[in-house]
Amino acid sequence: MSSSQIPIDHNYNYNHRRNTSISMAASSSSGSQHPLSAGNGNGAHGGGGFSTVLHALPALPVHSHHVAEVLRAVFSSLIFSRSLGALTPSLDASSLFPDLVYPSLSYDARSQRQLDAAVRRVCESIEDAHAAGKLVDGQRWHVAISFYERRPQSPRPNATPTSSSPVGSWGSWFLGNSPSASSSILGVARTERSLSNASAWETWTLPLDLFTSTTSVSAELGVALRRTLGYVCERVNEHLDHIPPVTSRDALSYPFDITAAPAHSSAKDKAHDNGDGRRDSMGRERLGLDVVRRLLASTPPKGDLL
């Protein structure tokens, strides 16, 4: 064991703490066992000398006004599942569905602020698209969270001080300055500097089918959201061998980034898609080889991670 690695009981952190909180959230909201089978739903792609495990979550039908709460519920559960430091688990109740609860990020104020800021950016981008007349009922957006491994920085002569915990991503969904500029989805790292110090080892993609009409989708959304939280609980407990060593005593063991991009202009486009519109039997999208080629060919936006 390296001197920088903190000895932590992974069995306790993953199987005990997460089961008692995330499973509590899923079971208390659904009252039954999660019906989705594990399936495959993920893949690993090499880039820059490391690999990123990709997880495709089931698509959710969401009214544009409900996006923020849906993202908070799903991504809070994922962030909690990858927080291996000392913390006291607690639960938040959904503002949309009073009987649905999910893990709270109250144990780490910085993570909560980062999540809130990212959710605001996604919602603002969707609102801009709606105001510009570019958002139609059934249009799909992809929102994803990527987790990164902190890599020790090697001292360099005459090096200019940089961020204390730089991170970089091989696999991540990008959010541009506007919906039209946010055409790139998966892409290479934003800066060569960040890639040298960190890597995205896991990305969870959440497809959202957005609706702006007055037709209520709350009932369908409630069922779908409960299924997704159950699926998250199932998947995070199944695949653990790709998780990097813990090198910090912080509650949040790995930096994360949340980004988004519109995928199609309408539901009809999705039905005729030859790449990222393909689905498996569970409704999860498959990332085909043609999709990866298009994504890698896209130009990532400028700027640093949160």
Automatic annotation (TrEMBL):
**Single Gene Ontology MF annotation:** protein kinase binding
Its keywords, alphabetically, are: Autophagy
Specify the superkingdom.
Eukaryota
Q: Name one GO cellular component term.
A: Atg1/ULK1 kinase complex
Name one process (GO BP) from the record: autophagosome assembly
Keyword match Zinc: no
Compositionally biased intervals (Basic and acidic residues)? 266-284
Its recorded name reads: Autophagy-related protein 101
